[in-house]
Specification:
single chain; 586 residues; Immunoglobulin-like; six-stranded mixed sheet; five-stranded mixed sheet; 16 helices; 25 strands
Length: 586
């Protein structure tokens, strides 16, 4: 070797028996050498020396190109003729040796090489057809990539004469994952007529299945997945997998659509399959938070005491509606206004109207353009990371002030309470009905899950109990004040929840858990148009899941805080029965 020696990592696998031209008792050895190709060139490497416990073996790299062949040919000529167990060991060795190179944009070459190896070595099983209808059949309806090593599959498998013995998911790269014990079975009425509704022992057959599983090695190829099924009688089938869905929004919406709370079995589906998959989706969303640019419009205030974080999603008209109200309040012109655009596709339109709004109203503000949509928690956390002030206000774009001076009153009250956590205020509908006067938790009798409820929602703003400043279990994130250092200490809003529901109550519960107290400030009022950029059907799906997640994570804290809140709530409701105004509920 010329120049400096370079040490490479090598792994070896002995397999098979002696070939006809081998010395008796010797085995074939497959060696994986891990190196960067340019290392050999840059260091002038002449030989590759492999050290073993019996000495060293040297290979002349100059002569190596003439002996090179592709992986598929090599394995077909040296391994493919061996028994299935040996081929499986070789494939497992290749997957484990190359898996650390399966990452992002650099994964294409090793993924394709492993796919070629798998095709050369795998045992091909029969594809289900009509002749399998009384033995073993199945189909994969949909397949979702939750993360590079996390997948969610839906389909059916029917084995009428013998129980299933093995169900394996095989990635294009050859990583094999046994999933039989993880399958969540459910009834498929469309298959009962073909295979029979009831088994010989009288149980209702569940041919359909859903399964979330994780693999030892990541997979980036969209085609080539297989599901193998084998029953105890030895029947085998190979189920082809349709094109993989990788779009995170489509994956998330499918998972939410599978949420059901009808039985203990459905709860098992949620806890063991849907929730782990959704948590991975949400984590991937959090990982994509990237600020593309920050644009300052107008002269920023010097040493602002409060930063307002205002996500913009879907509708830009809210921006002018707020600025047109803020212009009447000198306090808002001295605040750090941060609008976070969570709809990057609207960036061109926003950057067209923003300078005109600042010129017209002379209210300085910043616009933070995110690279991709990251949801309510991600947008607020991105804005908070750029805030300059000791106090933060999380503010919805559809919240409008009733009168000037509200921000100063909030800040003064917050600073007067040393153990305060989050501070909320009175929010109104446009018809003067109450939208928010603090939040509490109500346990659903059917599911046992804790729901978020707003005190006195739909009643008149002048209702006496709603005009009492007091500690409350939680406040809404539509307008929530918190110390910036406290917010960052807790890691901001949790990214585990989906699409802007329950992140605010989760934050309040975490504050209660560390001994803080959440407050409702009754003598400050703002209007809240509530959820006009949020489709109702999507909100319905997310509420079911988010409610369960919050109960699962914080049920013990909720029970403790509501044990104290219930007597006060009962007294207020008694007063309501005597003074209930005749206004419509919203």
């Amino acid at each position: 070797m010329q120049g400096q020696d370079v040490t490479f990592r090598a792994e070896a696998l002995a397999y098979g028996g002696p070939r006809d031209n081998d010395v008796e008792g010797h085995q074939s050895v497959l060696i994986l050498v891990h190196c960067e190709s340019n290392q050999c060139v840059s260091h002038g490497t002449q030989r590759l020396v492999l050290g073993t416990n019996r000495g060293a073996v040297a290979f002349d790299l100059a002569a190596l190109p003439a002996a090179l062949t592709d992986v598929r040919t090599l394995l077909r000529e040296s391994v493919a003729g061996l028994d299935i167990d040996t081929r499986s060991r070789v494939m497992e060795f290749l997957v484990s040796g190359v898996s650390d190179r399966l990452a992002g944009s650099s994964a294409a070459a090793p993924s394709m090489a492993l796919y070629a190896a798998r095709e050369a070595l795998r045992e091909r099983l029969p594809v289900p057809g009509s002749h399998h209808r009384h033995l073993l059949g199945g189909s994969i309806d949909s397949f979702f990539a939750v993360a590079p090593n996390s997948f969610y599959v839906r389909g059916w498998i029917a084995s009428t004469d013998s129980p299933l013995a093995r169900v394996s998911a095989v990635s294009p790269e050859g990583c094999r994952t046994e999933i039989l014990d993880r399958l969540h079975g459910h009834c498929r009425p469309d298959l009962n007529g073909l295979y029979g509704r009831v088994s010989r022992d009288g149980e209702v057959r569940k041919f359909g299945f859903i399964c979330h599983f994780e693999t030892k090695a990541p997979s980036y190829l969209d085609d080539g997945w297989l599901i193998e099924a084998v029953n105890a009688a030895g029947d085998e089938v190979e189920l082809q997998v349709p094109a993989i869905e990788r779009n995170l929004i489509a994956v998330r919406n499918t998972l939410l659509g599978d949420v059901n709370f009808g039985s203990d079995a459905d709860l098992c589906l949620l806890t063991e399959h849907i929730a782990p998959a959704l948590l991975r989706v949400q984590q991937r969303h959090a990982d994509t938070i990237c600020v593309e640019r920050v644009i300052q419009y107008g002269t920023p205030p010097v040493n602002p005491s409060v930063s307002l974080i205002i996500p913009l999603y879907g509708r830009l008209d809210f921006l002018e509606q707020q600025i047109a109200q803020f212009v009447h309040d000198p306090e808002l012109q001295q605040a750090d206004l941060i609008y976070v655009l969570d709809s990057p596709e609207l960036s061109t339109a926003l950057e067209f109207i923003a300078p005109r709004l600042e010129w017209l109203y002379h209210v300085p503000f910043r616009v933070v353009v995110l690279k991709s949509n990251v949801g309510y928690s991600g947008a607020n956390n991105a804005g908070a990371a750029l805030a300059h002030s000791p106090l933060l206000v999380l503010l919805n774009a559809d919240v409008l002030p009733d009168a000037p001076g509200w921000l100063g009153k909030m800040a003064a009250f917050y600073e007067s309470k040393p153990a305060i956590g989050a501070l909320g205020l009175k929010l109104l509908y446009e018809d003067e009905a109450l939208q928010h006067a603090g939040m509490y938790f109500y346990q659903d009798e059917g599911t046992g899950h804790w729901r978020n409820e707003h005190y006195y929602k739909g009643l008149h703003r002048c209702l006496p109990p709603a005009n009492v400043t007091r500690p409350v279990p939680a406040v809404t994130g539509a307008c929530l004040m918190i110390a910036a250092d406290l917010y960052r200490q807790l890691g901001g809003l949790s990214g585990q929840y989906v699409q802007g529901d329950y992140e605010d109550s989760d934050l309040c519960l975490r504050l209660l858990d560390i001994g803080r107290e959440n407050w409702y400030l009754a003598d400050v009022e703002l209007y809240h148009l509530e959820g006009q950029s949020y489709p109702a059907e999507l909100r319905r799906l997310t509420c079911h899941y988010n409610r369960w997640l919050q109960s699962h994570l914080w049920g013990h804290v909720i029970e403790k805080c509501m044990a104290k809140a219930i007597p006060a709530t009962a007294a207020i409701e008694s007063a309501l029965r005597l003074n209930k105004p005749a206004v419509r509920r919203r």
